[in-house]
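User: I've been trying to design a sequence by hand for this structure and keep getting stuck. Would you show me what you'd pick, starting by listing the structure so we're on the same page?

Assistant: Good idea, let's start from the same input. This is the structure you sent:
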C-alpha cells in the first residue's frame, strides 16, 4: 500500500512539473510583438481589442499570450482603489449584506476607472483577462483566494485579498496572475510596470507557494492544505522569475540548537547552471552573507548547508544572483 501511494505521489508530481514543457516548442515572439503593436489601445470596445490581439495568431496559446502580455503591459495597478476596497471590507466584516450593496455600487466606478484610465486592482485584471479570452473563444475563469506576501496572510489566512485566472488550453487548465505579472507598487505608492513572465502559465507546484484559492480544485495537481501553505517559506516575484521551488526547510519558522547545521534546497524548473547561490541576513541596510558549504546541484535540486554557531533569532534570505527568492526565520537555542 505504501509503495502504491508513493507511485501515485510521483505520478502527480511529475504530471505537475511536466507543464513547464507543454509549450516549450512555441515561439511567442509574434504574439508579444502583436501586443506591443497595440500598445495604448482603447478598452471601449473589448471585442475589437480581442480581435486585434488574436486574429492573426494560429494557436490558442499564442492568442492567450498576446492577450496576457497586452494586459500586463497596458494596465496599471491602482493602489488607491486597493486601499479603499480593503477599508470597506474591514468596515463591513460582519455585515455581508452591507458589503455586497457597497460592492455593487462601487464596481461601476471601478469599471469606469479601468476603461477610462486603464487602472485597476487584481479583480479588474482577472476580469479583463476573462473577457478578452471570451471574445477570442478561449475558456478562462476568475479564481478568488488568498495571496501571501510580506504584508498579508503570513501566519494565517485572515485576508481574502487576491484574484487571478485559470485558462484552458489544449483541454488542460493552467494558472496565471496578470496582477503580479504587471509590476509592483513602490514605497511611495507609485505603480512601477515591470513585466514578470514567471506568472504566465505557471506550474501549479510553484503557483501554490503564494496563491491559495477558495475553491481547492484550482490548486490543480497540487494537494496543498492551508496549514502547510501558511507555514511555508515566504516567496517573491523573483522566485517566479527564476522558476525555483523551495524544498527545504519546508517551513518558514525553524528552530535548531547551536552548532547544528541546516540544509537549504530548492528545485529549479528551468535549465540554468550559472546562478550564484547565497544565504544572507540584513542588519539595517547592510547585507551579511553566511558561510555555506556542501553546495551541489543534482537532478534539478540545488542544496547547501550552513552551521549556526551562536544562539539567537535570524531572518535569513535565500538569494539567486542578486534576487531574494525565499525567506526563513531561524531560532537558534543552546545545545
Amino acid at each position: 500500500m505504501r509503495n502504491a501511494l508513493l507511485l501515485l505521489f510521483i505520478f502527480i508530481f511529475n504530471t505537475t512539473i511536466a507543464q513547464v514543457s507543454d509549450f516549450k516548442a512555441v515561439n511567442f515572439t509574434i504574439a508579444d510583438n502583436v501586443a506591443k503593436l497595440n500598445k495604448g489601445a482603447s478598452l471601449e470596445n473589448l471585442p475589437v481589442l480581442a480581435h486585434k490581439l488574436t486574429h492573426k495568431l494560429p494557436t490558442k496559446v499564442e492568442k492567450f499570450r498576446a492577450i496576457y502580455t497586452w494586459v500586463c503591459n497596458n494596465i496599471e495597478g491602482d493602489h488607491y482603489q486597493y486601499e479603499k476596497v480593503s477599508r470597506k471590507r474591514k468596515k463591513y466584516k460582519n455585515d455581508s449584506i452591507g458589503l455586497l450593496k457597497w460592492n455593487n455600487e462601487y464596481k461601476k466606478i471601478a469599471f469606469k476607472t479601468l476603461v477610462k484610465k486603464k487602472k485597476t486592482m487584481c479583480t479588474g485584471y482577472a476580469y479583463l483577462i476573462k473577457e478578452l479570452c471570451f471574445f477570442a473563444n478561449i475558456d478562462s475563469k476568475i479564481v478568488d483566494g488568498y495571496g501571501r506576501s510580506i504584508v498579508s496572510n503570513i501566519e494565517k489566512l485572515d485576508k481574502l485579498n487576491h484574484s487571478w485566472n485559470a485558462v484552458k488550453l489544449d483541454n488542460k487548465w493552467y494558472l496565471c496572475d496578470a496582477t503580479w505579472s504587471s509590476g509592483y507598487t513602490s514605497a511611495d505608492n507609485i505603480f512601477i510596470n515591470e513585466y514578470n513572465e514567471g506568472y504566465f502559465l505557471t506550474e501549479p507546484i510553484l503557483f501554490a507557494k503564494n496563491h491559495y484559492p477558495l475553491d481547492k480544485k484550482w490548486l490543480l495537481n497540487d494537494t496543498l492544505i492551508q496549514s502547510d501553505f501558511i507555514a511555508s517559506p515566504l516567496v517573491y516575484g523573483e522566485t517566479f522569475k527564476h522558476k525555483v521551488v523551495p524544498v527545504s526547510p519546508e517551513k518558514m519558522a525553524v528552530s535548531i540548537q547551536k552548532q547544528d547545521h541546516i540544509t537549504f534546497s530548492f528545485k529549479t524548473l528551468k535549465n540554468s547552471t550559472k546562478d550564484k547561490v547565497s544565504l544572507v541576513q540584513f542588519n539595517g541596510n547592510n547585507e551579511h552573507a553566511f558561510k555555506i558549504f556542501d553546495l551541489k546541484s543534482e537532478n534539478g535540486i540545488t542544496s547547501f548547508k550552513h552551521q549556526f554557531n551562536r544562539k539567537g533569532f535570524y531572518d535569513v534570505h535565500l538569494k539567486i544572483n542578486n534576487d531574494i527568492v525565499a525567506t526563513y526565520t531561524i531560532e537558534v537555542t543552546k545545545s
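That's my pick for every position. To get oriented when you compare it with your attempt: The chain has eleven helices and 17 strands. The mean pLDDT is 88.
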